[in-house]
């Protein structure tokens, strides 16, 4: 089969690879029909690492995908022929973390397109356990890919304990931030959103943010706190920027929750401990997600405008290199590029 492989920083190559084989009763062979380019993929693509997770070349990239099940082991045959969204995290189900319901921090986690773990999904086929496959019905497969980042955002909003009537800040309006906006709205919250790239926060406004702005130009605290003098109940930091973390703390009310989803380029970030302490802010680190993919698929069905706003570019399988460059350079008002079809 054909697959894209990273030969070095910024060097994607189309290769011929062995098609994966079903090795267990509960596994299914998925014909991959749509793959999303994620910010984390761009870290691997450009820098060859995220923190101490370092790429060894050649590296098969990609973890966001959707496709059709074309074959399956005896215990997964009900999925054959069905269109599915893929949860890229394969957990062992045996370790202390899995037994505690923390499948996402499994000690033996095998994640698609993650260094030293599973080959990426930017290929014609993948094999996954049936429990990682979520039927999407008649959802457009390019939109079904958004189930992966949306699941992460739903998880962040759940962790921040967002309930109806709450005021939520979303700092960073890339795919995760826009999905967090939708997840918070679905939980009944009013959302304030920022991004230093204008078309991104404008997309948040189009999706119904109560206010959106550019933190490099607008006085975000005056705008948000002018409308919500008590402060925000929760902030989803989806920028991976020190300035956004600092701003989040200033926006939050006492007892508020700061959910950190963004991946910083720096090894360390700092937080203003006295303000955190006096306000008793809960700082929540978000490691991908667990148990939120089904809710994500459901929200995509309920709100088709979300994926339509997030997916800005559809490219062919052969154009994968161009798709990565587009996202890496943030050209052409890109939010999410999907590599779809052949
Ligand atoms: Zn991703
Ligand atoms: Zn485990």
Question: Helical residue percent?
Answer: 25-40%
Profile the largest sheet.
7 strands, mixed
- Rounded to an integer in angstroms, the radius of gyration calculated over CA atoms is 20 Å
What name is given to the CATH topology of the largest domain? Quinone Oxidoreductase, Chain A, domain 1
Low-confidence stretches: none
Strand content: 25-35%
The ligands bound in this entry are: zinc ion
CATH class of the largest domain: Alpha Beta
Number of domains: 2
Explain what you see.
The protein is of the alpha/beta class. The protein has two domains: 2-148 and 289-340, Quinone Oxidoreductase, Chain A, domain 1; 150-285, NAD(P)-binding Rossmann-like Domain (Rossmann fold, 3-Layer(aba) Sandwich). Helices cover 30% and strands 28% of the residues. It is built from twelve helices and 20 strands. The strands form five sheets. Strands 3, 7, 8, 11, 12, 19 and 20 form a seven-stranded mixed β-sheet that branches. A six-stranded parallel β-sheet has the order 15-14-13-16-17-18, sandwiched between helices. A three-stranded antiparallel β-sheet has the order 2-1-6, with no helix packed on it. The two termini are 13 Å apart. 49% of the residues are buried.
């Amino acid at each position: 089969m054909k697959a894209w492989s990273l030969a070095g920083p910024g060097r994607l190559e189309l290769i011929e690879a062995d098609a994966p084989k079903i090795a267990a009763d509960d596994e299914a062979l998925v014909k991959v029909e749509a793959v999303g380019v994620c910010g984390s993929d761009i870290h691997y693509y450009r820098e060859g690492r995220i923190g101490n997770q370092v790429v060894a070349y050649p590296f098969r990239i990609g973890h966001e995908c959707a496709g059709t099940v074309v074959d399956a082991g005896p215990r997964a045959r009900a999925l054959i022929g069905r269109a599915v969204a893929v949860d890229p995290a394969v957990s062992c189900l045996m370790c202390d973390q899995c037994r505690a319901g923390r499948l996402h921090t499994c000690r033996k986690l095998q994640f698609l397109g993650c260094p030293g773990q599973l080959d990426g999904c930017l290929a014609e086929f993948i094999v996954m356990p049936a429990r990682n496959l979520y039927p999407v019905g008649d959802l457009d497969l390019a939109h079904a890919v958004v189930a992966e980042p949306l699941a992460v955002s739903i998880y962040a909003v759940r962790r921040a304990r967002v309930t109806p009537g709450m005021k939520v800040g979303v700092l960073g309006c890339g795919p995760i931030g826009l999905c967090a906006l939708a997840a918070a709205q679905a939980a009944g919250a009013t959302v304030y959103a920022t991004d230093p790239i204008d078309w991104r926060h404008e997309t948040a406004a189009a999706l119904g943010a109560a206010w959106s702005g550019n933190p490099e130009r607008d006085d975000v605290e005056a705008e948000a706190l002018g409308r919500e003098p008590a402060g925000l109940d929760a902030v989803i930091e989806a920028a991976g920027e020190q300035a956004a973390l600092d701003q989040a703390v200033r926006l939050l009310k006492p007892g508020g929750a700061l959910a950190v989803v963004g991946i910083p380029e720096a090894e360390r970030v700092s937080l203003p401990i006295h303000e955190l302490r006096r306000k008793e802010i809960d700082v929540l680190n978000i490691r991908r997600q667990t148990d939120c993919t089904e809710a994500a698929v459901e929200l995509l069905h309920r709100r088709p405008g979300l994926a339509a706003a997030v997916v800005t570019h559809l490219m062919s399988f052969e154009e994968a290199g161009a798709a990565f460059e587009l996202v890496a350079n943030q050209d052409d008002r890109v939010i999410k590029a999907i590599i779809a079809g052949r």
